[in-house]
Amino acid sequence: MALLEVRDLGVSFVTRNGVNKAVDGISFDVEAGKITAIIGESGSGKSVACYSMLGLVPMPPGRIDGGSAHFDGQDLLQMSEAELRKIRGRDIAMIFQDPMTCLNPFMRIGEQMIEPLVLHRGTSKAEAMERAIELLGEVGIREPASTINCYPHEFSGGMRQRVMIAMALINEPRLLIADEPTTALDVTIQAQILQLIAELQKSRDIGVIFISHDLAVVADIADQIAVMQEGRIVERGDREAIFSHAEHPYTQKLLSAIPSGGKENAQAHDDTLVRVRNLKTWFHSGEETVKAVDDVSFEIRRGEILGMVGESGSGKSTIGRSLLRLVPVTGGEVEFDGVDVTALEGTALKDMRRRMQMIFQDPFASLNPRMTVFDTLAEPLLLHGIETRKSVSQAVLKLMDDVGLMRSAVRKYPHEFSGGQRQRIAIGRALATRPEFVVADEPVSALDVTIQAQILDLMEALGREYGLTMLFVSHDLAVVKHLADRIVVLYQGRIVEQGTGDSLFANPQEPYTQRLLGAIPGRHLL
Amino acid sequence: MNTEVIQDIAQAEEGTSLWQDAWVRLRKNHLAVLGLVVLLFMIVIALLTPWIAPYAYDAQNLDLGATPPSAAHWLGTDVFGRDLLTQIMYGGRISLAVGFIATSVALLIGVSWGAIAGYVGGRTDAIMMRLVDILYALPFMIFIVLLMVVFGRNVILLFLAIGAVEWLTMARIMRGQMQSLRQQEFVEAAVSLGLPPATIIRRHLVPNALGPIIVYTTLTIPSVMLLEAFLSFLGLGIQPPQTSWGLLISYGAETMEEYPWLLIYPGLTLTITLFSLNFLGDGLRDALDVRGSKD
User: What ipTM was predicted for this assembly?
Assistant: First the structure.
């Protein structure tokens, strides 16, 4: 008998606009000692399905339509809130996407860790502390005896996720539900956390439900995979079956969305458009000086897409912002088409800004929530005198066509769009002034994989159409290789290696590059 | 292209679509519209008072004394035999003017001051906000008395003096909003488009900070009206026979056991005005929050 048997589970949300079937009769099993992955894009119902079993979906508006979820022979759906509370945190534990919001910033790690132990098992404080220290060691936290007295903000994102995992394990659960546990992390950290989950699951023989939007992430660790779309499981099978011969078109779409392959050599010109020499961007915070970018030199030829990879804190975003004069540069030169950008002021700078633009990471933050699409797109056109008030509406509609937005949406506000559509608006704004050079700062890392693929395709097509030169910044080597002509690898504010995608993948010289390559999820698929 | 889109674009070309949308949404909010209508009514009455008031504002009838409402004096008379309706109408001129002008002064100074300090940051911010702190620390009564002593007593000065005190909190609120907003990527995007700082503040930052500002404004207007009453009561504001709602209420409160109407009617007028203001303020805040709208 499986550890968890879900049969015909249905969950709806009752709103003013009618009933929305979030989960529509799904069935799956989770075996002890196996990892079952549930894959689907946002809104597919994958999280709702798992949360509803644990009574974590607010009702109303939520409503369980039917079905059963037998955990260890007992139906979770029939349990009272009090019974469920006992099961949660003791037999079934969860880890979430963002470990920062799940930890109480005012409590020491140790106190938070032992809380469930003291609560559910009635263990003494000293004993619980001992257990917590032991577990922290097990999830790979160095010197657990002293770090247990730290506050959450003293840990990095990856370390916090380790702490969360240790917390989840403290009551020796038999089922672990991991909801996008690596989505907020860098690739290298992601690889470590995935490995940790797989190891812990084997050594403890527990069942794991791994929720993700990205098939590639689970390619190495999942035993069973269920693919969800619009509340239904459209395909289910073991890993080999899904990856080698997926039958459902949606699964095939997910598989093809995994960025793979290199880029065929484009028509890069010989002349250099951007020349960066000994760029230094340092930040001062109190006494400390953070050398975000430390003596970096590179060139981008006209029409070329230069990929820039590195983990968070490597200075890759700061380089992009330095080129566009969005952060003050400490030293060095940034030459754009023969002009030193770092020295420009006033109208000369404004004129230069027309020629170089930026696409931001988070399409929810990069658009003014109180400006319609029309105003957002018209602003740069009017500012730089590219269009007059009379002619601007035609130009805006043309832009919307270019980036694949419905013309009828012209008067809508950003919150009325999905993440992918919002990124299209942001791309439209960046391209409005017909720039020659665009810095794309992680433009797809906040998006679902299928949407990622669409946006990457769009950027590729527009890049060709507009004759763009691009600096493409990302922590994801696979995405960069897919798009870029050349790749620069950044580590702690310095360039450690550069080359074409193929040469870098085939023959990485630096240990850091090798590590980055090794961290790409599902790399055997590439 | 369908006609709807063409029409939409024609509208959008006017430019200030946020305000137009807000107006459309505000009109759907019945309470807010009611508040607006009542306020406009009050303002029109106040403007027309010299021509439509039933009596002269300083006409006394000492033989009459304090009488309850009657056909000749709809809201009764005070101890000097002055018509209460007339007093309320003339008082409204002062009170509404103080409320709106002083609040506008506070808004103008506070919002620009806070926006600039919050946006520029660094040393400029420190200097600007320390100045605010110093003014905060100054007892405002002393400040106003000083102004009165130096410039002599007049109504315009009173407006300015109150406004000059009230802008401090406004500046604080605005600066706090600015500091969180300027971290947002859309501000960076605006910089990279080449927009000048003034435009970024005006188009991108202030509209996103309007919610708390509007709420605080609707709280400021009544407190300004009461402040005026307090100052007048101390002899620093306006003097009889000129009057204001605040003065009428404080005199009415003294005699409320014998002549309750002298308190009830001015109080009722002020209450209705404040309710209208709050309804309008809430409506405006919702209307300007595009995310809350259900179209």
Answer: 0.74
H/E stretch holding A282 reads strand A272-285
CATH class of A272-371+438-525: alpha beta
pLDDT for residue A199: 84
Q: What angle do CA A401, A406, A411 make, to 5 degrees?
A: 110
Q: CB-based contact (8 Å) between B191 and chain A?
A: yes
Q: For residue B145, is it within any domain?
A: yes
At residue A1, the 3 state secondary structure works out as coil
Q: Which residue shows structure tokens 């992955």?
A: A37
How many independent structural domains does chain B possess? 1
| Chain B partners within 8 Å of A353 (Cβ) | 192-194
Closest approach of chain A CAs to the CA of B104, in angstroms?
A: 23
| Chain B nearest CA to A122, separation (Å) | 44
A375/B12 Cβ within 8 A: yes
Q: Is the pLDDT of residue B276 over 70?
A: yes
- Tell me the CATH class for A4-91+175-257: alpha beta
What pLDDT sits at residue B122?
A: 86
Adjacent-strand bridge partners of A69: A6
A348 Cβ under 8 Å from any chain B Cβ: no
Mutate to test the interface with B, among A16, A336, A411 (most CBs of B within 10 A): A411
Q: Quote the pLDDT of residue B39.
A: 92
Residue with tokens 């730089």: A384
Interface of B with A in 96-135 (CB under 8 A): none
Instruction: Please write the tens of the pLDDT for every residue from A396-447.
Output: 998 898 888 888 888 888 888 888 889 999 999 999 988 999 999 988 887 8
At A269, the pLDDT band (50, 70, 90 cuts) reads low
Cβ of residue A429 closer than 8 Å to a chain B Cβ: yes
Confidence of residue A267 (pLDDT cuts 50, 70, 90): low
The residue behind tokens 């458009």 is A273
**Spatial distance between the Cα atoms of A502 and A486, rounded to a whole number of angstroms:** 9
Interface test with B, best of A318, A360, A368, A398 (most B CBs within 10 A): A368
Q: Output the CA torsion B61→B64→B67→B71 (10° steps).
A: -80
Tell me, yes or no, if A133 comes closer than 8 A to chain B by beta carbon. Answer: no
Q: Which of B212-236 are b and which e, b meaning 16 or more Cβ less than 10 Å from the residue's Cβ?
A: ebbbbbbbbbbebbbbbbebbeeeb
Tokens of B168: 């401090």
Q: How would you write B19-70 as a 3-class SS string?
A: HHHHHHHHHHCHHHHHHHHHHHHHHHHHHHHHHHCCCCCCCCCCCCCCCCCC
With respect to residue B157, please indicate whether it lies within any of the assigned structural domains. Answer: yes
Question: What CA–CA distance (Å, rounded) separates A492 from A112?
Answer: 33
The predicted pLDDT at position B132 comes to 92
Domain ranges of chain A: 4-91+175-257, 104-170, 272-371+438-525
Residue A226, burial from CB neighbour count under 10 angstroms (0-12, 13-18, 19+): buried
The pLDDT of residue A377 = 92
pLDDT in tens, B167-196: 898 999 999 999 888 888 899 889 888 888
The pair phi, psi for residue B67, each rounded to 5°, is -125, 150
Q: How many CB pairs under 8 A join A and B?
A: 107
Q: How far is CA B167 from the centre of its chain?
A: 12
Domain range for residue B112?
Answer: 23-46+82-292
For the stretch B3-14, pLDDT in tens is 444 444 444 444
Q: How far is CA A493 from the centre of its chain?
A: 22
pTM above 0.80, yes or no: no
pLDDT digits (tens, 9 = 90+) for A85-137: 888 877 888 888 776 677 788 888 888 888 877 877 777 888 888 888 888 88
Amino acid letter for position A512:
Y
Domains A4-91+175-257 and A272-371+438-525 share a fold: yes
Measured between alpha carbons, how far is B75 from B77 in angstroms, rounded to an integer? 7
Instruction: Tell me the residue length of chain B.
Output: 295
